[in-house]
Amino acid sequence: MAVATTLHILSVIVWIGGMFFAHMALRPVVANLLEPPIRLQVMAQVLERFFLWVWIAVILLWATGLWIIFGFFDGMASIRISVHIMFSLAAIMTALYIYIFFIPFPNLRLAISTENFKQAGQYLAKIRSIIGFNLLLGIITVIIATGGRYF
């Protein structure tokens, strides 16, 4: 259980911490210092690198979460309601990430490659708003994970 839990927590740190950093620290600074063409290219490259790590985190989160539920407990029927809520929030977060990765993110990259920076800005704004919502869901999930046993 120690290996599964450690990998699970490290994956949470990578995904939620990365969203927090990108949304709360990197984006505002880049928006203040860089003109749109450079800013959009920087953010697209940052997201490309971050999304590789998010894929690893998502795969590990689901693998370790299911490993813990079915390997150390007696499956979904025997876990607390807080774990069911975390599971549901993880499903929503994963669906939102998959949407970002396969719809607005490729469109952002295409718009940048064709130098349509206005459209690229619209795609980046969409990605930013979804990441902001996913960050909120992630923080709620952490609160439930850490305090769920006390509810």
Protein model, in words:
It contains 5 helices and no strands. With 151 residues, the chain is mainly α. It has one domain (2-150). The longest helix has 36 residues, at 36-71.
Concise synopsis of the structure shown:
The chain is mainly alpha-helical and 151 residues long.
Strand tally, please?
Answer: 0
Provide the residue-averaged pLDDT.
96
Helix content: over 70%
Distance between the termini: 23 Å
Please tell me how large the radius of gyration is. 17 Å
Q: Structural class per helix/strand content?
A: mainly alpha
Low confidence ranges: none
Sketch the major β-sheet: none
Count of individual domains: 1
**Beta fraction of the residues?**
under 5%
Order of helices and strands: HHHHH
Query: Overall 3D geometry?
Result: elongated
Count of discrete alpha- or pi-helical segments spanning 4 or more residues: 5
Entry keywords:
single chain, elongated, 0% strand, mainly alpha
How is the secondary structure organized here?
Blueprint lengths: L1 H32 L2 H36 L9 H22 L1 H10 L3 H31 L4
